[in-house]
Structure formats: C-alpha cells, structure tokens
Amino acid sequence: MDITPSSPILLFDSGLGGLSVLAQLRKILPDAPVIYAADTAGMPYGEKTEAEVAARVAGLLGRMSERFAPRLACIACNTASTIALGMVRDVLHIPIVGTVPAIKPAAAMTKTGTIGLLGTAATIRQRYVDDLEARFAGDKILIRHAAPALVGAAETKLRGGRPDDAVFAEAVAGLREQAGGESIDTVVLACTHFPLLEPELRAAMGAGVTFIDGAKGIARRIASLTQGQDFAPEVAGRAVVTGDLDPALTVALEPYGIAEVARF
Ligand code: DGL
C-alpha cells in the first residue's frame, strides 16, 4: 500500500475512551490526519465474550482498512487489544499499535509493592494480563478490579453530563477492600475510558496514589512508527461510529478537533 500525506491514522475504540489516546497523540503529531472510529453499536466490549469482541474488532478493522486505507491502526482499547491484537496483526498488513495495561511502569514506580488495576471485566480475566503480571510484577502484589460502570461514567462526562459519584467510590472500594488493598500506592488504568476520569478517581482514592495509563506510550509508539512520513495538515479531524449519530457525540468530539462525524 502506498502511503500518501493524507493517509490517515485509524484510532479505534468501542466508544469515546480512545480520546484519551488521541489527546496524547495530538501533542506529538498535531498535523497527522486521524480517523477516530468508535464501535458505539457494540459498546461495552467489557461485558462481551472473547469471541464476540474478536469477531467485531477483526471484522470492523478489516472493513475500515479497506475503506480508509490507513497508514497505521491503533486499537485504543485495552479490552479489544488484550483479546484480539494478535488476530488483527495476522490479517491486516499495516502496523497495528495495541493498548497494553501499564503494569511494567507501575511495577517500577510502586514503593509499597502493591499495585491496583482497574479495567473491564473482559480485560482483567485475560491471559495477556496474567503474562504481564508474571513478567513485570512477579515480585509485587497486583490487585485487579473490574469497574464496568466507569465506562458509562466516562461516556456521560464527555457528553457534558455529570456521572454519579457512587461509581468512583465503588471502583475504589473494589480495590481497597481486597486483601492488602490498603497498601496500594499505584493504580493502573487499564481501560482507555478511565484516564478521562482521573480527577474523580484521584479524589475518591485519596492522597498518595499515583495513576498510570498507556496513552503517552502509545502516542510515542505511533510517532516512532510514522517517523519520516509526511502529513497533510488536516482541516478537521473525522470520526466514524457504528451506532446512532446523536448531537451529544458531536459535542464530545469537538474539543478533540473532530468536526465531522459519520455513520460507518
Ligand atoms: N475503552 C475500552 C477499553 O479500553 C472498554 C470500554 C468497553 O467496555 O467497551 O477496555
């Protein structure tokens, strides 16, 4: 495939969580043409089976690659990456950047040796996460908690609504109330929706806890894989969604430089 200056970078998530990655990418590659793709008809991925997530992600990314001819695709979703990254890499012949729970940097940062991990139900049960824990945090304690309500809370916040404070208290209790949870000093936000709620989670967790996510690392990886390539500066970013086009979606995407939203 020939890369032209207008070949886009495709950023894919189930919903608006991938905007936490787009925000970091814009800091490094402000001119890169980006198509933000959200499988809003399939959200939440975290409550689906592995087979359902794999089929949706591989099918949609295949069709989107044919339609948009991206120079690179980023799966800006931990659930989709931990389940389907290998499969997508096997079928698409462009660089694919995945989103990996930031267990390695968290293990390097923790002082108490106890790390919390918040993700979707599907993410926290993946072998992928077991392998990261064994490789990078074998001498630490990793406490995992599925916090699916945070996905909806992030969607509400981005659409200009006010999420219920109880969901933050519940997420924190889910970590703190497990054995050893009082020692957590570092929390991995292993869902791209969750960094969008960092201020709320920080307030609920209390002082002395560091939050870490993969967005900056992903943006750096995309920049390195596209180094030396030309970008035709975009007039406005584009988004495609699989679900309904509601006006609140446009409002949520606008601050990220996306003015055009279409149905895929
Ligand atoms: N943003 C997705 C992630 O990083 C999950 C949201 C969902 O459950 O669809 O895992």
**Order of strands in the sheet with most strands:** 4-3-1-2-9-10
Main beta-sheet annotation: 6 strands, parallel
Helix content: 40-55%
- Rg over CA atoms, rounded to whole Å, is 18 Å
Bound molecules: D-glutamic acid
Order of helices and strands: EHEHEHEHEHHEHHEHEHEHE
Mean pLDDT reading: 96
Count every beta strand, where a strand is a DSSP E run of 2 or more residues.
Answer: 10
> How many distinct domains?
2
CATH architectural name of the largest domain: 3-Layer(aba) Sandwich
Main CATH class of the largest domain? Alpha Beta
Which overall shape is indicated by the principal axes computed on the Cα atoms? globular
Q: Please identify the structural class as seen in this structure.
A: alpha/beta
Stretches where pLDDT falls below 50 for ≥5 residues? none
Q: In whole angstroms, how far apart are the ends? A: 22 Å
Strand residue percentage: 15-25%
Number of helices: 11
Notable characteristics:
Rossmann fold, single chain, 4-stranded parallel β-sheet, 10 strands, alpha/beta, about 260 residues, about 40% helix, binds D-glutamic acid
3D structure, described in words:
The protein is α/β, with parallel strands linked by helices. α2 (50-68) packs across α3 (78-91) and α8 (166-176) packs across α9. It is globular, with a radius of gyration of 18 Å. The protein has two domains: 9-99 and 216-263, 3-Layer(aba) Sandwich (Rossmann fold), CATH 3.40.50; 108-213, Rossmann fold (3-Layer(aba) Sandwich). It has eleven helices and ten strands. The mean pLDDT is 96. α11 links the parallel β9 (237-241) and β10 (258-263). The strands form two sheets. A six-stranded parallel β-sheet has the order 4-3-1-2-9-10, sandwiched between helices. D-glutamic acid is lined by residues 13-15, 17, 43-46, 77-79, 120, 123, 151, 191-193.
